[in-house]
From TrEMBL:
It comes from the Bacteria. InterPro entries: ExoDNase_VIII. It comes from Salmonella typhimurium. GO terms for molecular function: double-stranded DNA 5'-3' DNA exonuclease activity. The lineage of its organism: Bacteria, Pseudomonadati, Pseudomonadota, Gammaproteobacteria, Enterobacterales. This is Uncharacterized protein. It holds the Pfam family Exonuc_VIII.
Length: 132
């Protein structure tokens, strides 16, 4: 039974529920090889896949078309700001749609990235109607 339970946990995330079981904040500084980096602190990066669904969607939303595997502290603050911004109907509708599609809740990060970019292309953020 314990082996079966471990099979559903990947990188500290329960793949059945999406619950983050532990914090996966990683620090990728390599001070031993580069003395220049020893004086500047390495950025603290968070793996997007370990974040809740709403944050995963918003991470790809702020990626400007680029796939984000990690987010730094400033990007994480932007994700939290967007999540709390109830006046931004575009973002709130995107989150509502993501939460109401059962298959989307289980999607891998690359698929979330492709879907968010497709939505931004079809329904531009600036509100202009696309020509079909």
């Amino acid at each position: 039974a314990a082996a079966a339970a471990r099979q559903h946990i990947v990188d500290g995330v329960d793949t059945e529920t999406g619950e983050v079981l532990e914090d996966h904040t990683e620090n990728f500084g390599n001070e031993s090889n580069s003395p220049a980096q020893a004086t500047a602190p390495a950025p603290e990066l968070t793996v997007v896949a370990t974040m809740p669904l709403r944050h995963r969607v918003l991470a790809q939303y702020i990626g400007e078309g680029e796939y984000l595997y990690h987010v730094d502290a400033s990007q994480k603050k932007e994700i939290l700001r967007l999540e709390m911004d109830t006046d931004n109907s575009y973002v709130q509708n995107l989150l509502l749609a993501a939460e109401n599609v059962e298959a989307f809740k289980k999607a891998i990060e690359h698929d979330i990235h492709k879907i968010v970019n497709a939505v931004k292309k079809i329904f531009p953020v600036d509100g202009k109607t696309p020509e079909l």
